[in-house]
Structures are given as structure tokens and as C-alpha cells.
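Teaching assistant's notes for section 4

Start the section by putting this record on the projector. Ask students to predict, before seeing the second block, whether Dihydrolipoamide dehydrogenase will look compact or extended. Collect guesses on the board.
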Amino acid sequence: MTETESNVYDVVVIGAGPVGENVADRTRAAGLTTAIVESELVGGECSYWACMPSKALLRPVIARADARRTPGLSQAVRGPLDAAAVLAHRDYYTSDWKDDGQVQWVEGIGADLYRGQGRLAGPRTVEVTGPDGARRVLTARHAVAVCTGSRAALPGLPGLADVRPWTSREATSAHEVPGRLIVVGGGVVAVEMATAWQALGSRVTVLVRGGGLLDRMEPFAGELVARALTEAGADLRTGTSVKSVSRENGTVVAVTDTGERIEADEILFATGRAPRTDDLGLETVGLEPGSWLETDDSLRVTGHDWLYAVGDVNHRALLTHQGKYQARIAGAAIAARATGERGLDTAPWGAHAATADHAAVPQVVFTDPEAASVGLTLAEAERAGHRVRAVDVDLATVAGAGLYADGYTGRARMVVDLEDEILRGVTFVGPGVGEMIHSATIAVAGQVPVHRLWHAVPSYPTISEVWLRLLEAYRDN
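Reveal the predicted structure now:
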């Protein structure tokens, strides 16, 4: 019988992705002893199967598209992408799915890394089962932070497992370009992967149950991305559900709700996310296994003064950058409570309140065109009871946009609160707009009054001059 090792720390973090790493970094910086537990690769989903590999696949696609819209350069980039080189570039950014560098970083901050499956075993207690079957019990004096993220949620279609469908993981790590690819879904993963694999040589069919793409953004975002995907050669079908799937002689067959059979080499289901909490021992502390974990704004789990849930697992904002923001808040809150050196500031926009989760969440969709947004859409602001007005500008009217690309197509919107004259939300769609969204995030998070924005002068001739056009449209209408 294997002897159980026991160790005591101030803080135990379950999950060594970017979120868990940032919690550990903040607690170590505060002088708290910290253990971090990881069952897969240190660095997590973002580093190996999400943010980094997906953007490595997409960057050559977007660069080629921009070049093709640039006079004097367009004729030089008419050929196909070098798929092998793109995939090798992706492999470089995932460190070939080796986590040595990430492990060194954890060691460098002075945290102790435990490899294995971590499960709660009662209050402030985490049991780790290592790859060799050895058991270790970690006890936390002050806090346990659950940073286990989310996984792809697959629909309950009969025989789906036998088809061996792609999820986001397979879509970002595949080593061959499928001749034909079916993408099921209309969200961020669906449109980004459709964009990437279509450009790399797949014939892509996108099946969307709803009426359009990117339904959590302003409607024009999905419309412009849908138009571009179609023009690139993708077969986009809205109002279409998959009723059954099978693999026949190596070919995937998807049958839609109208009875149509669509054949492909691979099928990607990008139909949502589920929390990685099903094998976490939540039942030992009175919580439901497999559930999202509800938290207050300091990221402390409701009803548990020692337990924190940070990142995707709390379902506040399923974005890596937002999870890292939460981690900084949670780490500061844990340290403040543990040391008692200063009180908690949990007022809106306070040092220990993740207020941006409610009011200023930024996101970039790396399609062609890019779609970027922060804060509330017009519909969300109206549902929240704000008296607002949407101000729209055609980005093609901005001098910098025309210089950026011939035939530039894009749109910008700001949602203005008419009571306070601050921005509740901003959306940009067009080539290159991803690099502009942080200015909007500052305006929304900082609650900068419209009259003050007049004094934030955009440089000419850049696409950022759209800010002036938006303010003029607000003033003149």
C-alpha cells in the first residue's frame, strides 16, 4: 500500500493554466506559500489547444488577406498558403506540446508543482493522485482556488463517439488539412476555425442552428463575418441542425433536420463549453459535481469563505484574458484576507472586485474581417434598463481605413448612456480592428464622459480616426 504524503500550504491552486498561474503568481508575490496542481500540461488550454495555436493558424490567413488588399503587393500573394509551414509555425507556438518552459516559470516564482488529478477532499483539503498512483494530501491554511477551466460540450447525438469528432482541441492541433470539413456552430471557435481551415485548403461547410453568426455581438458583426466566409468559399447554412452523424468507410456523414446528407473528412462541433468540475470532489464540500461555480466579485465561491473559483469555471466570462484579470483580483483578495494587513476593497472598480466582468469585457474574433467588442451591445444595454443610443459609422469613410486596405469594409458602433453620457459598449468590425479595442476598453472601464473623449485626439491617418467620426455622429444627430 502506497504511503500518503501530506503537506501544508497557505494556498492550493488546482489548475496550472494561465488563470491558475496568475493566482499563484499573486499569492507568492504576497509571501504566501503556494502549491499548484495540474493533471495535463502546465500552461493549460490556452497555450496548447486554444488561444496560441488558433492565432498561430490564423495569423498567416489574415496577413495574406491584408496583403491581397494592398496595391503593389496583391499580385505577389496570389498563390495558396504553405499549409505545412503554417502548421509548423503553430507547433512552434505550442512548444510542440511540451511544457518545460512553463514548469520553469512555476518553479521560478517559488510555487510547488504537483502533477496529477487534484480533487477536493473536504474543506481546505486537496487530494492529488499522481501519474504513478501515489497519493498526496495538500492542506490550505487560507484558500483553495479552483482554476480548472472548461471543456468542449458535445451534443447527445447517437453514435457521436464512434465518429471521433473534432472539438476545439483537435481543430487547433490537427497535423493534416482535411479535404472537407463540417463545422457545427456559429460562435467564436466555429468562425475562427472555419476561417483558418478554409484558407488552408479545406472545403468548409458551416451549419448554424440559429439565424446567424456571433450572436453575442452586435448583429452586424456576424453579418459581415458571414459574408466574408461565403466569399472565401465556405458553404454557410443557417437555421440548420444536425440530427445524426456516422462515419462510413472513413467518411463523415451528417444528416440535417431536413434529411440532407452532407459528407466530409472531419466534423468539428463548436457548440458550447462545460465546466471541468465533474471529477473535482465538489460533493465533499456540499457543491454539485459538474456544475459552474457561483462566486462573488472577489471570486470567492458562494457559501465557502476559503474556496475560490477563477476563470472559465465560474462562467462569468469564458475568455483567457478575463480569467487572468480575475486571477489578479482573486490573488489580491486571498492575500488581503490571509495577511490582514489591509481591508478588502470590494466596491465597484475596487482592488478586490472583478467589476469588469459585468461592464467591460473585451473580445476579439480573429476572422477576416476581425470583430472586436467591449461592454454591452445595444440590446443588452436596453435589457439592463439603460437609456441608450447607438451611434454607427461606416469604417470605409475613415481615411486610415482606405490606406490600410483597398475596398475596406467595416463598421463601428458605440452605445452611449444618455443619462451619464458615458459609453456602455463599443464594437468594431473590419480588418485590423483587433488592435483598436483596448482604446474602447479604457473608455468603457474608465467611464470616460463623451465630452472628455473629444480631447482624446486620434492620430491621422489611422483607422483610430473612427473615434472622431463616432463622436461627430453623436453630436450631429
